[in-house]
Target: Homoserine dehydrogenase
Amino acid sequence: MRVAILGVGTVGEQVAKILIQNAELISARSGKNITPVVGVVRNLNKKRDVNFELTDDINSVISRDDIDVFVELMGGVDEPYKIVSEILKRKKAVVTANKALLAYYRYELANMAGETPFGFEASVAGGIPIIKTLREGLSANDIQSIKGIINGTCNYILTSMMRDGANFSDVLKKAQDLGYAEADPTFDVGGFDAAHKLLILASLAYGINARPEDILIEGIERINDADIYFANDFGYTIKLLAIAKKTANGVELRVHPTLVPKDHMIAKVDGVMNAVSIVGNAVGETMYYGAGAGGAATASAVISDIIDIARGISSPMLGYKTQNAVSELKLLDKDEILTHYYIRLKVEDRLGVLACITNLMSQNSISIDSFLQTPNFDDGDMTTLFFTTHTSREADVKHVLALLRDQEFIKDEPFMMRIEQ
Model:
């Protein structure tokens, strides 16, 4: 089986190395000799540690009849979509790690692929086989929820903030120095990377055809030392969670920093590691942990798809032969999300302020669960107030925050996080 690698960067090099280093083992497991024969690069002058043909002419490669599997590792959305579409028109197998491509075009690609193999295990959670788990291992289950730490950069930053008391900007710089974060970290710390991955998982679990702009996405940039103090004092840790949850009214899809009780398994996942918790109606809760990024881990997932293709294993790309079972499911509007909330307010320290805040909350269907005022963050004639709520509706919480912004005693932008109990 002859493989073309479109994009020979960190992951592409590792794909080639593993295919060559583990060739005998891979051949024994797949029943075929799998060989990388050509790679496409943007810059031929850049040195790469591979010993097969390299070219910058992608059209000459995708038109070749002697290639059995095309591995797309280019990144981006529109250009890879055009290229992969051309490959699928020629009924050639495709494997990709491109979560952004799938976040926008997974259903179009599934329709084009038909019975042509299309693998994307590497698009979510790196070396964790979460795609196969949802599509095959848990295929008998009605999935109740998915909660995942699926961005290692954010998990590293939040772990350092919780454990060491470091501030966001200092930890971000260290993450960049260590290669965990890009020079422009917006895609990671803003929650967009995790959102792309969540959309892929939601299609497998619920058949939901949504795009990033359709779902709730918040990043970790506004978390500060006051939030860390509260989390530690009340027995929580803070994680950027990607959440898919089936409710009576629809499917919630959301990515945001979350207060998680420290005794929950997913709260114990630290550093750059990833983890995904899935609850099925038959199996209950199962949890998957491992390296979510890195060349070797991602390449491992890419090659697992190539091996499946060599074996002739064929599963529906998005997990469904028909849409009957999921045709009634709809994406729940962001404002209809129901959960617990944490609210931080910096206010003028004077008589009557707390009463005004609690009245505003009660008048707008917000029930307070706990309250904390601490001198740790006092600043002159200002003080910081912390609230948690009972189960509340997203729209009601946002409305209260908007009302609070207009109050003259509010001295900083109100901050809110959601809580997963």
Observations:
- The chain has three domains: 2-127, 134-291, 338-419.
- The chain has a mean pLDDT of 95.
